[in-house]
From TrEMBL:
Residues reported in the UniProt entry to bind a divalent metal cation: 7-8, 99
Keyword Hydrolase (UniProt): yes
Protein name: Ribonuclease HII
Organism for this UniProt entry: Acinetobacter tjernbergiae DSM 14971 = CIP 107465
Lineage: Bacteria, Pseudomonadati, Pseudomonadota, Gammaproteobacteria, Moraxellales
Occurrences of domain RNase H type-2 (ranges): 1-189
Enzyme's top EC category: hydrolase
Family per similarity comment: Belongs to the RNase HII family.
Role, per record: Endonuclease that specifically degrades the RNA of RNA-DNA hybrids.
Gene Ontology CC annotations of this record: cytoplasm; ribonuclease H2 complex
Keyword presence, Cytoplasm: yes
Length: 189
């Protein structure tokens, strides 16, 4: 039975896309060291990112843009990214397991939500790593374009440094305008 693990990265930040990944692992080609991406070092995540792509039977990375987040809300945008990731797999899974307590709407395959699944199920751990590394890489690219914001360091999360950068340099196109701190910076609240 093909089981796809699904997870996301980037729900909490004030900027950028929410990224989701879906992974079907090969039981005959195990990957050592899989865990919740937040519990791994960046170096370990990068190593596992490549190993997952080499050894998995199928994997996919998808996203919902900052514009879609503003249009639909973060939860619905997360579900959209997850659905896109599952639909992009080159192998159709018979079951989807998702980290969290809700099943994304629109996935037409048997689906189970597992709280803490990114630490307890290898398929979800692998998806967690693909999503986190992809999202972090996007923040490094944004940091190159906008070096005054510190995206490489805080990854777009609502930190003191990020708020100070917004106060000093303003909101940029990729900020999520539906988020209260961004609205405040734009004087929309």
């Amino acid at each position: 039975m093909f089981i796809a693990g699904v997870d996301e990265a980037g729900r909490g930040p004030l900027i950028g896309s929410v990224v989701a990944a879906a992974v079907i692992l090969d039981p005959n080609n195990p990957i050592e060291g899989l865990n919740d991406s937040k519990k791994l070092t960046e170096k370990k995540r990068e190593k596992l990112f490549l190993e997952i792509q080499e050894k998995a039977l199928a994997w996919s990375i998808a996203e919902a843009t900052h514009t879609e987040i503003d249009e639909f809300n973060i939860l619905q945008a997360t579900f959209l990214a997850m659905r896109r990731a599952v639909e992009s797999l080159k192998i159709q899974p018979e079951k989807v397991i998702v980290d969290g307590n809700q099943i994304p709407k629109g996935i037409e395959i048997s689906c189970e939500a597992i709280v803490g699944g990114d630490a307890s199920h290898a398929e979800i751990s692998a998806a967690s790593i693909l999503a986190k590394v992809t999202r972090d890489r996007q923040m490094y690219e944004l940091d190159q374009q906008y070096p005054n914001y510190g995206f490489a360091k805080h990854k777009g999360y609502p930190t003191k440094a990020h708020f100070e950068a917004i106060a000093a340099h303003g909101v940029i196109d990729q900020h999520r305008r539906s988020y209260a701190p961004v609205k405040r910076a734009l004087n929309l609240l």
